[in-house]
Amino acid sequence: MAHDHSHGTGSRRQLAIVFSIVLGIFVFQLIGSIITGSLALLIDTGHNAVDLIGIGIALFAATLVRRPARGQKTWGFRRAEVLAAGAQATLLLGLGVYSLVEGIRRFFAPPEVPGPELLIFGAIGLAGNIVSIIILSSSKNDSLNLKAAFLEVIADALGSVAVIVAAVSIWLFDWTRADAVAALFIAALIVPRAFSILRETGSILLEVAPKELDLDKVKEHIEGVEHVQEVHDLHVTRIDSNLPVLTAHVVLADECFYDGHAPRILTSLQECLAEHFQVAIEHSTFQFDRAKDAAQETHTHG
User: Fold this and answer.
1) Among 160, 168, 219, 232, which residue carries the largest CB count within 10 Å?
2) pTM of the prediction?
3) Which residues, 6 or more positions from 11, have their beta carbon under 8 angstroms from its beta carbon?
4) What distance in Å separates the CA atoms of residue 102 and residue 208, rounded to the nearest whole number?
5) Residue 286, helix vs strand vs coil
6) What is the dihedral angle through the alpha carbons of 224, 228, 232, 235, rounded to the nearest 10 degrees?
7) pLDDT bucket at 297, cuts 50 / 70 / 90
8) Domains parsed from the chain with CATH numbers
9) What is the DSSP string of 179-230?
10) DSSP 38
11) CA separation for the pair 189, 160 (Å, rounded)
12) pLDDT at res. 126
């Protein structure tokens, strides 16, 4: 069955624009980190560096998934976006752990950080993040890859807010520990998000069925189609975040193989899967069995 990739060009263009913005923020904040010596700004800069790598991977993956399936690559490079999201999450997790360790150390030994300069760098970083959020907001649900990129710039924006709050606290109240607190806040944003993306990519790679799909109800719907006697060896996996695939053995009444019912039953099953569930399954493969043949199978599972 053919699948529409028309959103791919727009998604790549959006990622390319966001990549350019994040690159500019990264360079600017790197300079700011050197000038101010702020841990919060340094962590936010590191976060931007990881995002820059991650969005670059996402852009590369968005290009790869458009390549047609050929030869032994029967699904093309559709899994590239899953691997890209996993790579982003792994980098974020490493940065989050560093932020926690260094933030705790600096909380007990806070260095001098200039508040006004820190405020300027944080504000410009936030402005760039807001532009990136606006650009990605329309396509954030198109794929796990784009979702990861969108969540990264959201966390960047919150990190920039933390830098701004720390700058104001240092400037107006001379609370030097605000820098370490902001760094710990940014770490608290990064670590759960990294685990969330890793869990999602892991479930796809382990071929776990989508959590929104109740397999018992799927089986019930299939067995509710006229002339279907039983369903076994039912499997639902995902090739990428947007392509669930179902395979099943369906036992039909014997006469269906001789009176022309089988093709109509196949159409009914495909329509059922595409329309009745929260996750539309548009790529399905059924093996039709006669009851006496199904009884002889020794390695079936429900």
Assistant:
1) 160
2) 0.73
3) 62, 139, 142, 143, 146
4) 37
5) strand
6) -60
7) low
8) 7-205 (1.20.1510.10), 215-294 (3.30.70.1350)
9) HHHHHHHHHHHHHHHHHHHHHHHHHHHTTPPPTT--HHHHHHHHHTSTTEEE
10) -
11) 12
12) 92
